[in-house]
Amino acid sequence: MSRRGELMGQLLEALRRTSGWSVAMSQVAAERIGVNTTDLHCLNLLSDGPMTASEMARRAGITTASVTGVIDRLEGVGYVRRERDSADRRKVVVTLLTERAAADVAPVFQPFVRAWRGAMDGYTDEQLELIAGFLGRTEEVFQSEVGRMRATEREPGRAAEREPGRAAE
């Protein structure tokens, strides 16, 4: 195997492991905050600013029917506010209530952010730029693949339509 092939394998393996730890981190954080992981994911998305329910569903990779339940739960515990879109009354705009999130959610992640900052201290600005670019591309791949999976989830022979517990043949 070439050096490049070895490096690509190492990177893909590291991404796989990091993805697993990210899921574990989200589960533990959600438990500490008192929400489920999908709700926490949507809170994270809303930290980018208000968005419509359909935009939140798209960005979270969930159905529009599911996002209604997410919004109901998050509104019920005081993390979000929903309002009708002033331009299109059929749409709902969801806004993060930042004071509540800062009080309950931010403290759970502050140690993690401090640890990340410490881990990045040894990198030059150029290296950080490279890493940021790589992570941006990684995000694009995830977005594209979630969209592709959503578009093909109902195709015959797909795992989503197999009987529960039955392996692919």
TrEMBL record:
Residues 4-140 form the HTH marR-type domain. Gene3D superfamilies: Winged helix-like DNA-binding domain superfamily/Winged helix DNA-binding domain. Residues 146-169 are annotated as: Disordered. Residues 147-169 have a biased composition (Basic and acidic residues). Pfam families: MarR. It comes from the Bacteria. One of its GO terms (biological process) is response to stress. CDD domains: HTH_ARSR. GO terms for molecular function: DNA-binding transcription factor activity. PANTHER family: TRANSCRIPTIONAL REGULATOR, MARR FAMILY, TRANSCRIPTIONAL REGULATORY PROTEIN. This is MarR family transcriptional regulator. It comes from Nonomuraea montanisoli.
